[in-house]
Design brief:
Elements lengths: L3 E7 L3 H12 L4 E5 L25 H13 L4 E4 L2 E5 L5 E5 L2 E10 L3 E3 L7 H4 L4 E2 L2 H4 L7 E5 L3 H11 L4 E5 L12 H6 L3 E4 L2 E8 L3 E8 L5 E5 L2 E4 L3 E3 L29 E3 L11 H19 L4
Parallel strand pairs: 1-2, 1-6, 2-3, 6-17, 8-15, 9-10, 9-15, 10-11
Antiparallel strand pairs: 4-5, 5-6, 7-16, 12-13, 13-14
Helix pairs in contact: 1-2, 1-7
This protein binds NADP nicotinamide-adenine-dinucleotide phosphate.
The site of NADP nicotinamide-adenine-dinucleotide phosphate has 19 residues, from helix 5.
Length: 307
């Protein structure tokens, strides 16, 4: 029979590698299944200032690698594999991947969340053709150009500021008349001279020839539509959880997040959800990392037959 791990962790972001660190230090035989590289969404942030312990901040890619190496120092393994399907009710639990089957007495699901889409026609076709979801990844293509950023949260504002250092002009489009983003960003926004705001506006159409050439906006109060010509649009309207593989097996909340409280226990014994993928009030690196530690605490109890 194939090797049975004490714990199979799906996702190598801060939640996954925190769980791996705590599990490995507790002497558990643990593997992390990661699709690309350590860090998850965090790896795309070029400056992280709100994870304690780094007085000058740190970039997300480096922090991800350090979390991975920290867990591997105690014996956690990493396998680069895409998870295709799961059988969480089986004993041991089965995880089918591009690199074969992994079996675990427990599973920690830490697959995070991906960018939310606008839901406009041709969004898929234009992705990468002027339409983007990650300014840190693709902003460099817009040096000296005009870009639109859609959203009003911390991510949209951080993206707009990053792009204002590269692009000639940045237009931040938000559906309300005030930002959701933290006050800490407001001064920098005021100081960015090439940044304009379009309040109370939503994108209703992506304008294009072969690639994106602009966006049609609708004023939510007056209903008036206007076209803006631009070279690129960056969508930053929040995230949706990566829980497609779990549907029908695990209880999800109305937003599609895994229903798991602060214990990170799901409705399936021995299966835990950590980080952005579970129902929670605050999705941050520090809360994802905390989840990893908590999940391992309850996983150890489960392995000891306590629940
Ligand atoms: P978010 O806080 O959920 O904000 C999403 C923004 O997009 C909101 O302004 C929302 O508008 C808008 N929006 C949502 N759906 C929309 C749609 N269909 N069309 C147009 N606009 C839409 O998401 P986020 O900015 O990605 O942040 C996610 C989490 O990461 C948050 O907890 C955030 O604090 C955290 N984060 C923190 C930092 C940091 O520096 N500390 C940086 C990045 C992210 P409304 O405001 O009207 O709802």
């Amino acid at each position: 029979m194939a090797h049975v791990y004490d714990m199979v962790i799906i996702g190598g972001g801060p939640g996954g590698y925190s769980a791996a660190l705590y599990a490995a230090r507790a002497g558990l035989d643990v593997v992390v299944l990661e699709q690309l590289s350590a860090g998850g969404q965090m790896a795309l942030s070029h400056q992280i200032d709100n994870y304690p312990g780094f007085s000058e901040g740190i970039d997300g890619f480096t922090l991800g690698i350090q979390m991975q190496e920290g867990a591997e120092r105690f014996g956690a393994k990493t396998e680069y594999a895409e998870v295709k399907s799961l059988d969480l009710l089986a004993e041991p639990k089965r995880v089918e991947t591009s690199e074969g089957t992994f079996l675990g007495k427990t599973v920690v699901y830490a697959a995070g969340a991906g960018p939310r889409k606008l839901g406009l026609p041709e969004e898929e076709t234009l992705a990468g053709q002027g339409l983007h979801y990650c300014a840190a990844c693709d902003g460099m293509f817009y040096k000296g150009k005009t870009v639109v950023v859609i959203g009003g949260g911390n991510s949209a504002v951080a993206d707009a500021l990053l792009l204002s250092r590269l692009a000639e002009k940045v237009i931040l489009v938000h559906r309300r008349d005030s930002l959701r983003a933290d006050k800490v960003y407001h001064k920098a926004l005021e100081e960015a001279e090439n940044l304009e705001f379009r309040w109370n506006s939503v994108a209703v159409e992506l304008l294009h020839r072969e690639r994106l050439s602009g966006v049609r906006l609708k004023d939510v109060n007056s209903g008036r539509e206007t076209d803006i010509s631009c070279d690129g649009v960056f969508v930053s309207v929040g995230r949706t959880p990566n829980t497609g593989l779990l549907k029908g097996q695990i209880a999800l909340d109305a937003g599609g997040y895994v229903s798991a409280g602060e214990s990170c226990r799901t409705n399936i014994p021995g299966v835990f959800a950590v980080g952005d993928v579970r129902t929670k009030a605050l999705r941050q690196i520090v809360t994802a990392a905390a989840d990893g530690a908590v999940a391992v605490h309850y996983a150890e109890e489960y392995l000891a037959g306590l629940h």
